[in-house]
Amino acid sequence: MPNSIRELPQEQRPYEKCLQKGASSLTDSELLAVILKTGTTGCNSIDLAAEILRTTEQSSYPGLAGILHLSVKDLMTIHGIGPVKAVQLKCIGELSKRIATSVAKTQLCLSQPQTIARYYMEQLRHEETERILCMMMDTHMHLLGESVLSSGTVNASLITPREVFIEALRYHAVNLILVHNHPSGSPVPSSDDLMITEKIYYAGEMIGIHLTDHIIIGDQKYISFREQGIFKGYQDHSAV
Questions:
Q1: CA-CA 20 to 30 A from 101: which of 26, 41, 122, 206?
Q2: Do 134 and 147 contact (CB within 8 A), yes or no?
Q3: Hey, which bits of the chain come out as E strands?
């Protein structure tokens, strides 16, 4: 690969290629090269971009998504990446998350778990520890607010019904949805997930604040307790 982008044929230069064929025609390395603008001595921006992607291959999140999991300090260990380029890359990653969340927000429907999962997916699927959020609604399922109840360890994030209902009462909510992530990427509920959800459900029924769903976010996957029929099991048990 030439040491300078200018040494490449014009149709292979990322800027020119984007102008002629659109951004979608660029490879991952070429997209990063446009953002980086310049390389370093003996290494053009495309080569530097390829080195960044090779670095992410060593992580649990290979490819472009891996940039979200590299700290500024991690990025600066790559030859040719200083503080300015490292910050640019982190900001591009954050911008992509916010764009995805903004698009999902326009489709958010609190009675449709898939739209809730889509809304929180980019916010939560890259987290390396568990976070539990509570969405609080009125009687008509209008969102009153959301609150982060817990940011836990890589394996578990424990909450109590008391924490949940302190927030619910503060917002005068009558309906709740819990949302949390699994850093492992699998949304399958653990025994702790099932146990705490059941406790919160029954405690809420006693005071007139209804837990209408618990959605677990994995890596591009989710599980809704309501869709899985878990909540119906609680209701059937209450009727016995």
A1: 26
A2: yes
A3: 131-137, 143-151, 175-181, 210-217, 222-224
Give Cβ neighbours of residue 118 (< 8 Å, ≥ 6 apart): 104, 107, 108
Give domain 108-239's CATH number out of 3.40.140.10, 3.40.50.2000, 3.90.45.10, 3.40.50.10860: 3.40.140.10
CA-CA distance, 33 to 39, in Å (whole number)?
A: 8
Question: Is residue 134 within a helix (H) or strand (E), and if so which, with residue range?
Answer: strand 131-137
Enter the pTM of the model.
Answer: 0.69
The whole-angstrom distance between residue 53's C-alpha and the CA centroid of its chain comes to 20
Contact 129, 154 (CB under 8 A): yes
Identity at 44, one-letter amino acid code: N
**Alpha-carbon gap, residue 110 to 197, rounded angstroms:** 18
**CB of 69 within 8 A of CB of 94?**
no
Are 151 and 130 spatial neighbours (Cβ–Cβ below 8 Å)?
yes
Strand partners, 189: none
